[in-house]
Design brief:
23% strand, 17 helices, M1 Pyruvate Kinase, Domain 3, 37% helix, alpha/beta, 471 residues
Length: 471
């Protein structure tokens, strides 16, 4: 199942894609990672999906990664007496802690922490920014606002407050319960929503330890300001353009996306671009030209992974969405300008043996026209460093750790394999050659490049590079 592309695809599972047949079909069509969205569905729903994935993984004999996406502290208004109201520009509108049903003059905002954090002239956005309120006055029990952009507003709509640090934990009580399930099901990645500072990740890490990898979702302007600090403490990152696009001017989001992708590559951390990539395919069998260009842009930017959300979770055409995304990625990666762009981006290497070996491997591949790079890795670090170089051939990531082998599914260009650890370096070379032939990557007379560490079994010790000829 060696993909004919380097950029990976995440498919979100939901009502449209939870049966064993649908899951198998999505993987065959090109999905590399499955996402469980804990904003929707029950624990039993998610447990059943994981069971189906793991059963399929056993039959397939290839590690499959699963991402658990925690909901985070999503702020919402309460309910209206008649289900909705129409707000007019310049009218006064109150947000308060009164649990009575709302009307066209007020509504419940059941989040006392917001009242403590906002001040006069801060903006409050409701329903993905469709309603814009400007704060005129605030106390511990109510926020008096003026409607800047009105419209119809209905029950339980989401609330965003740009540029304000709201004193709330990024892990809610619901998230803690969902996290327990993630760890119980041995999910490979857990995504933390609405990260505002590095300490949010450190708190999560205290709970998870080494049981899973942590993905930081960048969807708050404050997280963008603290990008470098946050990237140091996460294992992967996501540009979550939904809430980010609500809280920031739309013209800034593509620029931030490029900055984040470049920063993650320099840090050696995989990066996912998400939200509305093929949104029209929720109801249509084909995407718009603008959506195809959006996916292509992310690929040209050298992102590790692109994500489908509602398209596969609740849309009418989940399989078609994955197939078209796969085609767009392969189209870009087969274009000569793609390789030119990759090689024009110089990354800053650390002064370490591991970085020196990984950089040399990419150069050796070009010199001897090798067909693949094999990395033996316990923690995944060796494969990540190889991928950061964006080599011209597939990276075969072999790990004796099942968790690591699954996590490698997210990394650009890596074909992940769970394999026993050889007892010697010569054994590694022999195994690499056997795997290359079995996976039909090479034929007799071809060269492969192998990187690994000695002593064997010690993480972070990549210090060997060998060239092997297939016999």
């Amino acid at each position: 199942m060696l993909r004919k592309r380097n950029t990976k695809i995440i498919a979100t599972l939901g009502p449209s894609s939870s049966s064993p047949v649908k899951i198998h079909s999505l993987f065959q069509a090109g999905a590399d990672i499955f996402r469980l969205n804990f904003s929707h569905g029950t624990h039993e729903d998610h447990r059943r999906r994981v069971f189906h994935i793991r059963q399929y993984e056993k039959r397939l004999g290839r590690p499959i990664a699963i991402l658990g996406d925690l909901q985070g502290p999503k702020f919402r208004i309460g309910n209206f007496r008649n289900g909705s109201v129409l707000l007019k520009n310049n009218q006064k509108f109150l947000l308060d802690l009164n649990e009575k049903l709302g009307d066209d003059s007020r509504i419940l905002l059941p989040h006392p922490e917001i009242f403590k954090s906002v001040k006069k002239n801060n903006r409050i956005l409701i329903d993905d920014g469709k309603i814009i309120l400007n704060i005129q006055n605030v106390n511990s029990e109510q926020i008096v606002t003026e409607v800047i952009n009105g419209g119809r507003i209905s029950n339980k709509k989401g609330v965003n407050i740009p540029e304000v640090f709201v004193k709330v934990s990024s892990l809610t009580k619901k998230d803690i319960k969902d996290l327990e399930l993630c760890l119980n099901l041995s999910l490979d990645y857990v995504a933390l929503s609405f990260v505002q500072k590095a300490n949010d990740l450190l708190k999560l890490k205290k709970i998870t330890g080494d049981q899973t990898a942590i993905m930081a979702k960048f969807e708050k302007p404050l997280a963008i300001k603290r990008m470098e600090e946050i990237l140091k403490h996460c294992d992967a990152a996501m540009v979550a353009r939904g809430d980010l696009g609500v809280e920031m001017p739309p013209e800034e989001v593509p620029i931030i996306q490029k900055r984040l992708v470049d920063a993650c590559r320099n840090h050696g951390k995989p990066i996912v671009v998400a939200t509305q990539m093929l949104d029209s395919m929720v109801n249509s069998p084909s995407p718009t030209r603008a959506e195809a260009s959006d996916v292509a842009t992310a690929v040209f930017d050298s992102v590790d992974c692109v994500m489908l959300s509602a398209e596969t979770a609740s849309g009418k055409f989940p399989l078609e969405s994955v197939k078209i995304m796969d085609r767009i990625i392969r189209g870009v990666e087969n274009d000569f300008s793609y390789r030119q762009l990759l090689e024009s981006k110089k990354i800053k290497l650390e002064e370490t043996t591991s970085d020196a070996i990984s950089s040399a491997a990419s150069q050796v591949v070009k010199t001897v026209l090798a067909k693949a790079i094999f990395t033996y890795t316990r923690s995944g670090g060796t494969a990540k460093r190889a991928a950061r170089e964006r080599p011209t051939v597939p990276i075969i990531g072999l790990s004796p750790e099942r968790l690591t082998a699954r996590q490698l599914a997210l990394i650009w260009g890596v074909h992940n394999i769970h394999a026993l650890e050889p007892k010697s370096f010569s054994g590694m070379i022999e195994n690499a050659c056997d795997v290359a032939k079995k996976e039909k990557i090479v034929k007799k007379g071809d060269y492969v490049v192998i990187t690994a560490g000695a002593p064997i079994g010690v993480s972070g010790s990549t210090n060997n590079l060998r060239i092997a000829k297939i016999s």
